[in-house]
Amino acid sequence: MGVYQQDRKTVLTIAIIIAFLVMGIRLFNVQIINKEYSLSSDNNALKYETRYPARGRILDRNGETIVDNKITYDIMVTPHDVKEFDTLAFCRIFDLDTGFVHEKFREYRMYRSRIGYQTLTFKKQVSNEQYNKFIEKSFLFEGFSGVLRTSRTYPKNAGGNILGYISEVDPAYLEKHPEYRSGDYVGKTGIEESYEEILRGEKGYNIYLRDAHNRIQERYKDGEFDKEAIPGKDVMTTLDADLQAYGEKLMKNKVGSLVAIEPSTGEILTMVSSPGIDVSQLSDISTHYKDLVRDPYKPMFNRAVMSPQPPGSVFKLVNGLIGLQEGVLKPSTTYPCHRGYVIGNLRVGCHGHPSPLDLYHSIMMSCNAYYCYVFRSIIDNPHYGSVREGFEAWKEYTESFGFGRKLGTDIPGELGGTMPTAERYDKIHGKNRWKSLSIISLSIGQGEIGCTPLHLANLAATIANRGYYYIPHLQKDTPELPIDARFKERQYTKVDTTHFTDVVKGMYMAVNGGPGGTARVAQIPGVEVCGKTGTAQNPHGDDHSVFICFAPKDDPKIAVVAYVENGGFGATWACPVASLLVEKYLCGEISPQRKYLEDRVVSTSLLWKVRVRKK
Amino acid sequence: MMGIKYKKIDFVTLCCYLVLVIFGWMNIFSSSAGESGFVWSISSKYVMDLIWVASSLIIGAIIIFAIPPRAYSAVAWPLYILIVFLLVAVAFVGVEVNGSKSWFAIGPFRLQPAEFSKISTALAIAYLLDKREIKFSLSGRNNIRDLLSIAAVLVVPMFAILLEKETGSALVYLGFLLVFYREGMSGWVLILGLLAILFFILTLVMSPWATLLILIGLLGCLGSFGSRKLHIGGPITVITVLLLAFFPRLYNIEGFGLIHRFEPEVWVALLSLPPVIFFTLRSLIRRQTLLRNVLLGYLLGICLIFSVQFVFDNVLKDHQRARIEVLLGIREDPKGVGYNVNQSLIAIGSGGLAGKGFLQGTQTRFDFVPEQSTDFIFCTIGEEWGFFGSLLVLSLYLTMILRILNNSEKQKDKFNRIFGYCTASCLLMHVMINISMTIGLMPVIGIPLPLLSYGGSSLWAFTIMIFIYLRLDLERWK
Question: What is the least distance, in Å, from the CA of A74 to any CA of chain B?
């Protein structure tokens, strides 16, 4: 028994020694091996005061400022240091409700152990006058301080959707971007987001020592290790602020997009998504955010790059070009049309126009039947052996125009649109059980095809350039801030440049070719405009009104697409809108004989035609 | 009173006691005195603590010189009952401090009966084990009755303390299991307890499935080792576990629709239960001890694994769950629940090898660490005295505990021996839980560091306990 119990004492002794050894080893690790903890202790005793840099401005292509900074102050509070103060006087300075102050301090008390000695933002964006009043009396409000912040102003009312807004980082964002600190502002959408790194600059700091009572005592080593804030760089955009403002005026009270590109560079001159965000809402986004999100017309949604829609007749240009390249179509080829393309039970309707037509006149008068023939001859081309192969060849051509994929712009949220695949038709009709007739809608830009307005603007630019495009972009190439190399490369389509002149001729005739031309309303005195209308059927209501154009015919300066949802015929709304924009850009003002057109466009609201889900 | 050889007093323990108490006062001074320096006022913690230290020494002297050792076994029961009564009473009429209602307020002083109940429980246990000759065995009616009574003595104050929401103080009572072990309780109780904690952690950190595989592997090896057939049982176990490890892969294969109804661990448990229960019953009848133990172990393990998530989600309170998650690294929260531990580690870690020096700590003195004079006093030591200081404190405790164990073992009187063991266990549990908590080895459990932490009740209680031990130890030389 004795020996047995003696054993047990030994077991206990060993166990106790092991327990103490574990603690000893852990202490050795924490106190001697691991340096992380002693570094953290410096962070506790040194107080870093952030110096915020001025955010870079955003300029338009002519150097005019479209986004600027104004100075405001954030009022900060260190709850631990706050003594009793005159709440009423405090509220008077900042125009606050006493309830707000009491509520804040109730919160601080509740989380006091968590807050500790931290300094928190008490009120954001206080004006200069308010801040000056506060500084005069700051000795009355211990624990409060002001920090200089910059907020955004918008000298021009243009580009609300493209510019984007800045707002304070939220916890979710902080988790993904550890380089930011709570209280920092960050670009959340648009250019503010895509050029965040250039615009934001670099924060600096002043270092102070805390004393035993945690009050800031002195500059750490006389500011030797302080760091200046480096202001953010300005970003020059390709936008033309005046043209953008004019475009927004034209698209007011309509749902859709208006995009203008300079064909020779791919620079986006104008990008309107309507209804959009007013710049006055941008500067104070937090107040308007809820309204903007709830608005059934979705003003936050940049339709120009995020809303794929059927292109309608505009797409005939692409089919014509493919036909020419494939050799199944010559400019002189004529096809008959008697109010449509009829074969068996199938009928693709058309409007009344002379028959038969050649390629030029088919573009000019936008004949549906003509392109049914063209499309079938591409798909059923015996050269490919099967419908499937013919379709794949056709699809490859469309992809070379940028359809069905992202163009690779610098616009956040850009979508690629959709192009149908052979597999998709297999699913609908059964494997290889579909023919050119089953997919005939593609011939006139309907059916399983979705392009963003930017795709169509890019098509206009491609035709304007006679066969190539530059990837559209919003950043202007400047010596200080050169653009990405991809924006400087010509992107050729798979159609020979020689074929484009024929299509251009058709587009010229559509505008200037006399009776039968679908886009005559786009005629601008003294400017040779080339254009193509489109009327896109859709399941959401009236047809969408589409128009692409470029001008002048030789050496084009601007290529435009207007997409007016539920606007009816292409010639009704899209055509006037786009041509007015072209005129404004090329001539500087609208000619007297077209003033009526401008008045009609500006004064008309088409919002009622658009079906929206009211929330 | 004649014939007591005071020269033979356990000087080692006494010295450790005195050094710790003085050192403790210095650190309380350091952590609560600001730049203002020493101010003689009863409102400052260090003055108050001085009063507690002085009164403790007087109490110590009284115990050594004035109270006959025989008195302890005589008052063991009445004292135990009185303190249990106080424990229950305090839950109703006590003052609430930091969410637990465990204090009596008497003028400016506050007393915490939970601290003193350790002494009364230790006395009661010593008395009971001494008088009843309790054998820790499950056979025989008397033995079972004795076992129940000893368990009740332990559990009643524990529950009363849990009622006051003092989880830490209640945990200390588990230390008495070490005393029972010394007095004959099977070591398996301790091993199973440790294994249960291990499996609890494994289930939370890894997954129930992984834990189940480990359980099967462990039992397989144990069984084949016990039956001296490791060369056969070992490979079979390894192969079984490896095959089972591939089981979850089946979930990715199409065509096993049925399998998705349950998680893999549920499948294994369900399928294995009928044969295991059958063989368990058979082994009980045929008295195959090894097989029975292995299979019972399996059943217990399965129950544990499946109850972990339930206990974790439903029994534990939010803050306890959060503390465990932070400790196990399941969740990071340096500003919230993890704040105390993080700041405590920063303070201790910044001490380095030799520390920043007395009164030079920045972390503890500037209030970065909460509760620094009570539960987190070890931070001040770690920061200002460095690794050397921490090691000194650790070795003082270790010396004291081992010394008490050693001397108690030499006692001829069983009551004296058991009380000595109880004293050592209480010290051990307090030191281990507190220091492990401050250095991030255990979840945050509020419990004072014996003799060092600020707080009169705790200092008095440990003084009384250690001095009773010192007095009883003198009995060896009669």
Answer: 23
A202: phi then psi, degrees, rounded to nearest 5: -130, 130
Q: Terminal CA-to-CA distance of chain B, rounded, Å?
A: 11
Q: How far is it, in rounded angstroms, from Cα B280 to Cα A414?
A: 67
One-character DSSP codes across B17-29: HHHHHHHHHHHHH
Helices (H), A29-95: 36-45, 87-94
Q: In angstroms, rounded to a whole number, what is the distance separating the alpha carbons of residues B362 and B341?
A: 17
Which pTM does this prediction carry?
A: 0.55
Residue A346, SS3 per DSSP: strand
Vertex B350: Cα angle to B348 and B354 (nearest 5): 85
Instruction: Kindly list the residues from chain B whose CB atom is less than 8 angstroms away from the CB atom of residue A26.
Output: 439-441
User: Rounded to 5 degrees, what angle do the CA atoms A396, A401, A402 make?
Assistant: 95
Q: What is the pLDDT of residues B295-334, one digit of tens each?
A: 888 888 888 888 887 777 777 777 777 777 766 666 655 5
Question: Percentage helix, strand, coil, to 5, in chain A?
Answer: 45, 20, 40
B185 in contact with chain A, both atoms CB, cutoff 8 A: no
- Find, in chain B, the residue whose alpha carbon is nearest to that of A213: B366
pLDDT above 50 (res B1): no
Q: Which tokens sit at B209?
A: 């499935």
- Give B 400-459 residues with CB within 8 A of chain A: 401-402, 405-406, 409, 428, 432, 435-436, 439-441
Q: What is the ipTM of this complex?
A: 0.86
- Does position B365 have pLDDT exceeding 90, yes or no? no
Pairwise CB contact (< 8 Å): A23 & B363: no
Q: Which DSSP letter does residue A141 get?
A: S
Q: What are residue B106's DSSP bridge partners?
A: B109
Q: Given phi > 0 = left and psi -120 to 50 = alpha, else beta, which region is B147?
A: alpha
Q: What is the mean pLDDT of residues B142-164?
A: 87
Write down the pLDDT at residue A218.
62
B40-47, long-range: CB < 8 A, 24+ apart:
B42/B108, B45/B373, B45/B454
Task: Establish if B335 touches chain A: CB-CB under 8 angstroms.
Answer: yes
Burial label, A278 (beta-carbon count in 10 A; 0-12, 13-18, 19+): middle
**A34 to chain B: which residues are within 8 Å by CB?**
349
* pLDDT less than 70: residues of chain A: 1-6, 35-48, 113-114, 116-117, 209-225, 613-615
Q: What is the DSSP string of A461-524?
A: HHHHTTSEEPPPBSB---SSSPPPGGGGS-EE-SS-GGGHHHHHHHHHHHHHS-TT-TTGGG-B
* b/e burial code for range B413-425 (CB count within 10 A of at least 16 → b): bebbbbbbbbbbb
SS (H, E, C) B322-372: HHHHHHCCCCCCCCCCCHHHHHHHHHHHHHCCCCCCCCCCCCCCCCCCCCC
* Residues in chain A, overall count: 615
- pLDDT at residue A367, rounded to an integer: 92
Question: What are the tens digits of pLDDT across the range A511-527?
Answer: 998 888 999 999 999 99
Q: Chain A partners of B435 at a C-beta cutoff of 8 Å?
A: 23
Residues B406-421: tens digit of each pLDDT: 999 998 889 999 999 9
Indicate the residue of B182, B353, B366 with minimum beta-carbon distance to A214: B366
